Amino acid sequence: TIYNVGSINLDHLYQLDHFVRPGETMASDSYQCLLGGKGANQSVALAKAGADVKHVGAVHHSDQAVIDQLESLGVNTDLIKRVDTATGHAIIQLTKAAENSIILYQGANHTLSEAQIDQVLSSASAGDWVLLQNETNLIEYTMRKAQQHQVKVAFNPAPMDAELTKHVLEFVDLLIVNEVEGMDLMGTTDIDSTIAAFPKAYPELAVLMTLGKAGVCYFSGNETLSVDAFSVDAVDTTAAGDTFIGYCLSSLMSGDDMTQAITRACAASAICVTRLGAASSIPTQDEVTAFLAE
Ligand code: ADP
């Protein structure tokens, strides 16, 4: 089982000619409300990849539809709390020039309690994983508890908070970052020096760093691996990283080695970038298998 302790957001998307100006009221005739949040996206990717995923999080009492949607995509929702705080959400203005302007309300995503985490981890067993991003509260607490229960910790520190991340790395078994997050963490300005800096600073840590269309590199101790991305016509890279993480962890948990897991995850995220949208652009296992057979 993988316990994904993560955000659940509703993304309210409005298409507009231009951003709303101070004092202006603007009508939009294009509105969509989509399931989002890195946590929920990664749970959906894990489920689509065939993993046994339990999402740990919180939504407002009135948002049963969000829970139903996650459940319908194969995510176990028994550990999602119903709270009085509004469900996390983003108000997104999208202009014709494809620029966006976003208000993010963390809401219920920051109402996780120690009792909830304790309950989750008391049912976990050795061999299980906990996955976290940086969109919920109690990150260090959750990692400490996971370590006490001999549950492995995967951490995708997005959005990046370098101070918090460095502080909790001692609890992390697998760190997953993109190149910008990797550079923020190491205080470097290019990819090569980032790749060199990680093992020096954290010799014990296993790191997966995704490099967009340049692929992925992995390093752990003396082992280094790099895998190219698949060449596709990208139209929207939203959720590429989330797709990668879900597929890679699912593959590792099913016993694949790191090269196999990265390759499968690169295929899944290559398909994802050819489609518009977030959770809806994450491919199924069958689609990934067919893509790899091409
Ligand atoms: P994030 O979305 O978190 O910034 P990346 O941009 O590094 O993450 O993308 C994650 C993975 O998705 C990459 O490692 C790669 O395998 C795949 N990917 C991203 N962009 C492309 C692209 N243009 N073509 C093919 N694969 C891509």
TrEMBL record:
Amino acids binding K(+): D236, T238, C272, R275, G277, S281
Gene behind this protein: rbsK
Protein name as it appears in the record: Ribokinase
UniProt cofactor note: Requires a divalent cation, most likely magnesium in vivo, as an electrophilic catalyst to aid phosphoryl group transfer. It is the chelate of the metal and the nucleotide that is the actual substrate.
Keywords: ATP-binding, Carbohydrate metabolism, Cytoplasm, Kinase, Magnesium, Metal-binding, Nucleotide-binding, Potassium, Transferase
Requisite cofactors: Mg(2+)
Organism: Marinomonas pontica
Annotated InterPro entries: PfkB_dom, Ribo/fructo_kinase, Ribokinase, Ribokinase-like
Enzyme class at the top of the EC tree: transferase
Lineage, uppermost ranks: Bacteria, Pseudomonadati, Pseudomonadota, Gammaproteobacteria, Oceanospirillales
Localisation: Cytoplasm
